[in-house]
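Quick question: what would this complex look like in 3D?
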Amino acid sequence: MTAPIARIFSSLAVVAVTTACGGSYYEIPLETPIRPKLDTSGFERILVAGFIAGGTEDVDGNVETTRLLRSQLRSQSDMRVIDSDVLPLVEVANETRVASDSTAEGEDQSMPAAILEDEDLVPYEHLFADAEYWKQIGEEYQQPLIVTGTVMFAPQERSGIIQNDREVYDSFGRRSVVPVRTYMERTGFVLKPRFVFIDGRTGAVLYSENFREEVLYNANQTSPALSAYFELMDRLLPSFLSTLSTQTIKGTRVLLQ
Amino acid sequence: MSRLPTRVLGLLLVLGTLGVVPLAADARDDARRQVEFGIEVAQRGLWREAIYRWERAVSIDPTYAAAHNNLAIAYEQDGDLDKAREAYERAMALEPGDVFITQNYELFREINDRTNRENIQ
């Protein structure tokens, strides 16, 4: 009786050892297609209309964002990008607010003198829900997909403990890296765009997406606001483009045997 | 008299176990062949065939973590991120400590999180 039992255990042990040893592995390049978040098959043309922008006077968030998105869409999207003047949406929102206030008695939500904080954008939000206005814009440009929204680009300051790695050499000249914690005051910028996609045929909002990117520089570093703006936009452009067209993300994975 | 049925029962058990172990090993061998062929075709860019092979491998041997891992990668290449996540999670559950599966899964999650970051109105 002991021999068969021993045979069973030896068979099981072989299976276990074979499993534990595992096999070879192979690194393989991968291209992951990210399907667009929005179905744009009904549109041949796209209009980046303009943005309600604020935060700093150093960068015109409306003009720069419109120009940058149009240029990206020309090379990265199949839709025809419409060239037109950038819509002064702050003025449009003010006008439509005045018009609606004179026709209906509602809550008095006065428009801010300047858009400096996130809250200052709230009184302008009604513009994106104004289907009649967007339908009219759509008719003007042959019913394209309309991109609009808000762009808040503002300077920021932050202080706190930062951990950096520092090289140190001992008396024998041997190098090592040690973490060093230092208090630092840093300045930079924060970019908070909200992209709103509107159906130019109906004026209805199809989709909207919020982003937030920030950059902080050491106090002794100086970076112009415009270059910080492009640095931050560069980070979120792939996500913006993946709303409208298939994007491919390249990488590598490990196949196992 | 009472020992005879016990012995017969014991013998049957042993014979049964001896039969099951080679069967399990055969299944793993068969699944391994599918996995190997899948790797060969994936390296030549034939991902559809690779998916077919690895799907066969996991149906033959559902405990084969490497097959689930490879299948997850193929689903990623195909853009089917939901299926990829499921396959990675099965591979992780079967081999929780495998560094390659964990690394693949972490890289996949970066992409998956990016695509899920949208705030649909």
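Answer marked as accepted. The mean pLDDT of chain B is 85.
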